[in-house]
Design a protein that fits this description.
With 147 residues, this protein is mainly beta. It is globular and about 45 Å long. β9 and β10 form a beta hairpin. It has a single domain (4-139), classed as Beta Barrel (Lipocalin). The protein is 0% helix and 71% strand.
Length: 147
C-alpha cells in the first residue's frame, strides 16, 4: 500500500429502543507499516468549531488502537475479548468509557486494509450500546476508488 491513502470509517450504534443511523467519515490520510503494525494518520475538522483533531490508528493482530488529540482527546483500545476503560475528553467535559470488543478483524490486501470491530460501549460503567466500526483504507493510486 502507498503512503497516501483514502480512508472511510463508518460507525453504527444499537442502543435499546432507539433507531440507529450510521456515522461516516471519508478523508485522505497517511499510511505506513512499522514492526508489523499498520499506522493510519488523518485530521478531522469539527463542523461547529472548525477545530482540528489529529487521529492515529494503529492496527495489530486482533487489536485496534485509536488516539485522538485536539478538539477531543482519547486513547481507545479495542482488543478482542478484553475490556478497556479510558476517559474521553470533550470541550463539554469528560466521560469514563468502557470498550469491550467481541470482534476485531484486520484484513490486509495489496492496496487496501479492511477493519471490522464489534464492541459493547459503557459510559460511567453503564451499558449504552452495542456498536460496530468498519474502516476501509485504500491506496490513492489503486485505480479503483470505490470505498
Amino acid at each position: 500500500m502507498t503512503k497516501d491513502v483514502l480512508i472511510a470509517i463508518s460507525g453504527l450504534q444499537f442502543a435499546d429502543g432507539a433507531d440507529s443511523e450510521p456515522v461516516e467519515i471519508i478523508t485522505s490520510g497517511v499510511y505506513y507499516k512499522k514492526n508489523g503494525k499498520h499506522y493510519i494518520l488523518y485530521d478531522e475538522v469539527t463542523e461547529e468549531t472548525c477545530r482540528t483533531t489529529k487521529n492515529i490508528i494503529k492496527l495489530g493482530d486482533e487489536v485496534v488502537d485509536i488516539t485522538k488529540r485536539g478538539e477531543v482527546n482519547v486513547h481507545m483500545m479495542f482488543e478482542k475479548n478484553k475490556k478497556n476503560v479510558t476517559y474521553y475528553y470533550t470541550p463539554y467535559g469528560s466521560l469514563l468509557i468502557g470498550i469491550d470488543a467481541t470482534k476485531v478483524l484486520v484484513e490486509e490486501k495489496e492496496h487496501d486494509l479492511c477493519v471490522t470491530v464489534d464492541y459493547m460501549l459503557e459510559i460511567n460503567y453503564e451499558h449504552m450500546a452495542d456498536c460496530t466500526i468498519t474502516m476501509k483504507v485504500k491506496s490513492k493510486n489503486a485505480g479503483d476508488f470505490k470505498i
